[in-house]
Design goal:
Largest sheet: 5 strands, mixed
Strand content: 15-25%
CATH topology of one domain: Heat Shock Protein 90
Strand order of the largest sheet: 2-4-5-7-6
CATH architecture of one domain: 2-Layer Sandwich
Distance between the termini: 57 Å
Shape: elongated
Radius of gyration: 33 Å
Number of helices: 17
Structural class: alpha/beta
Oligomer: single chain
Helix content: 40-55%
CATH class of one domain: Alpha Beta
Length: about 575
């Protein structure tokens, strides 16, 4: 008996390990097919597109089967972690319904929610609930060709009761009795090509039971099925809800609107005028994974480059990346170690990091976020989820940078009170001694104020001529004030009009004047040099002031997190 039990356990573990190994190449095939459809849509014939879509459908169904095999083994070995908490039922169910809408195979099916908006919170594992709903809906969709699938929730006997009713092919009585056993098939009477190993209901039955609920099914051949499961309510809400008072079903118009919103391209920013492709650097020790990533992300939305080690990433950190995608399990330098080293130079908003891993346990996720990752995605990768997550991370980075840039431009444009008062005093003094120079100084001061508060400074780029005009006005004012203590040299060796970030040169010049030259009693010389080098414009601000001490220079451009200063 012990030997039989050991062989049974070994068999389950073999299935789970094999399923885990099969998921990555399977999802690679699915993602490759999807990338071909998206990127070569105009060149594909309708027949080729249909075959690729069929390939994706078959691949997704195989993926569901592999996930169920893994879950069955985890449940039998008590490796399923419970995270029971209080949460609202309606949003959780609606999320799963929306996912099913995206993944349905062009069937004439509709979902109808019959759940009150004020339905009381339940106490369970929300991840398990989503999986239960997903599996049950997947079964209903799988064995239904048209009609309505109704998801209804009510309160009975101080429990939440959820019904999922379809109008599919149903199950015969003998199958119904064995519906919750592992490896039992569904109906053999029709759609034999859709039959799998019958793990979905078994997984649902065990997950519901682990969350202190029950799962039952009513079914008749050719008349559909009704799946019903219960979940406990939170203690504060037990007994407050009665069976009546259900909210009316969500209107069909609302559901269509919701479907369109979800199925739309989440990365529609690529269509805006002046859109620049975000630069992504992906690292993985497996060339196949990198090839799949590149096929998913290359095209109109992103510019992606790939490397095979963390060391290569560190060498290329200063190339202006918008996102780093890193595999966690790499031999020489793990994704965790790489992220930790990146955070020594770039903050979480300056250079986002998305980690990829095969492990889906809380410890791995916590570790990823603790070392400074922005997001965490579990393999096998779904191309739609990957693109959505990347879009969110990059959009957030750009939004933060835009806010910081605008705030910086505003702060840089603020005029110090003493500078304003000293300039007005100089104007007043020249009004008595030299009215001609006073008028020139007034013109330069007016130009300085106009360019400092120019609304165009909120734009990412402004003409170089505007910036130089601002610098010239500032230096003229300071020259009038300090006379022989300030010597100014200009070396402009470039041609054409250049666009640069606003208020980048003037603050450097102002700093060189105030903290470099004027900190010495005798003053000094400042040189502004602009020259063209290859395809770049080189800007140099040189002064012979007191300079910067070596210890300050060493950390001048280094990002240091305050919480790590004690290390």
């Amino acid at each position: 008996m012990d030997k039989l039990q050991k062989e049974y356990t070994t068999k389950d573990q073999f299935l789970a390990n094999t399923s885990q190994e099969l998921r990555n190449p399977l999802h690679g095939m699915i993602n490759m097919a999807q990338s071909i459809i998206e990127q070569d849509r105009s060149r594909l014939t309708p027949q080729s597109k249909q075959k690729l879509e069929l390939l994706m459908v078959i691949g997704r169904r195989m993926s569901y089967l592999l996930n169920d095999l893994i879950n069955v083994t985890k449940i039998q070995q008590n490796k399923i972690n419970l995270n029971k908490q209080t949460f609202a039922l309606l949003p959780a169910i609606r999320t799963v319904v929306n996912v099913q809408r995206i993944m349905m195979d062009s069937k004439n099916l509709h979902f109808q929610l019959v759940i009150p908006k004020d339905f009381p919170p339940v106490y369970a594992d929300e991840t398990h609930l989503r999986q239960i709903i997903f599996n049950l809906l997947n079964i209903s969709v799988k064995y239904s060709e048209n009609g309505v699938i109704i998801i209804k929730a009510e309160v009975k006997n101080k429990e939440a009761v959820i019904h999922i009713k379809d109008s599919g092919i149903g199950m015969a009585d003998e199958k119904l009795k064995r519906a919750f056993l592992s490896y039992e098939l569904g109906s053999k009477e029709r759609y034999d090509d859709l039959n799998g190993l019958g793990l979905g209901l078994s997984v649902c039955h065990k997950l519901v039971r682990m969350n202190n609920g029950t799962l039952t099914v009513e079914s008749n051949l050719s008349k559909g099925s009704i799946f019903t499961f219960t979940l406990p309510l939170t203690q504060d809400d037990e007994g407050k809800q009665e069976e009546n008072g259900l909210a009316p079903p969500t209107s069909q118009e609302d559901m269509v609107h919701q479907e369109l919103a979800i199925s739309g391209d989440p990365l529609s920013t690529r269509d805006r005028q002046g859109y620049i492709k975000p630069k992504i650097l992906a690292v993985d020790d497996d060339p196949m994974n990198l090839h799949v990533l590149k096929n998913i992300l290359s095209g109109e939305e992103y510019s992606i480059e790939i490397v095979t080690s963390g060391e290569e990433v560190l060498k290329r950190l200063d190339e202006g990346w918008d996102l780093i995608i890193a595999d966690v399990m790499m031999p020489t330098m793990s994704g965790y170690e790489l992220t930790r080293k990146i955070r020594k130079h770039f903050s979480i908003s300056e250079l986002p990091v998305l980690l990829l891993t095969t492990q889906n346990n809380p410890e791995e996720v916590y570790t990823g976020f603790l070392v400074g990752a922005n997001d965490y995605l579990v393999k096998p990768i779904d191309s739609l989820e990957l693109r959505v997550r990347i879009g969110v991370v990059i959009d957030l980075k750009h939004s933060i940078q835009e806010r910081l840039r605008m705030e910086g431009a505003w702060l840089q444009s603020q005029i110090q009170p003493h500078f304003l008062f000293n300039t007005l005093n100089s104007i007043a003094a020249l009004g008595v001694t030299d009215s001609s120079r006073m008028l020139t100084l007034l013109d330069e001061f007016s130009n300085y104020l106009r360019l400092s508060f120019d609304f165009n400074n909120a734009e990412p780029l402004v003409p170089l001529s505007n910036e130089l005009s601002l610098v010239q006005s500032y230096l003229y004012i300071e020259k009038v004030r300090f006379n022989e203590r300030l010597t100014i040299n200009w070396e402009l060796n470039y041609s054409g009009e250049w666009m640069i970030p606003p208020l980048t040169i003037q603050p450097l010049v102002e700093n060189a004047v105030n903290h470099g030259i004027l900190s010495k009693p005798e003053g000094g010389t400042i040189s502004i040099k602009l020259s063209k080098e290859a395809h770049d414009l080189k800007v140099e601000i040189c002064d012979d002031g007191k300079g910067i001490s070596p210890d300050i220079q060493q950390n001048l451009f280094t990002y240091v997190k305050s919480e790590h200063k004690k290390e």
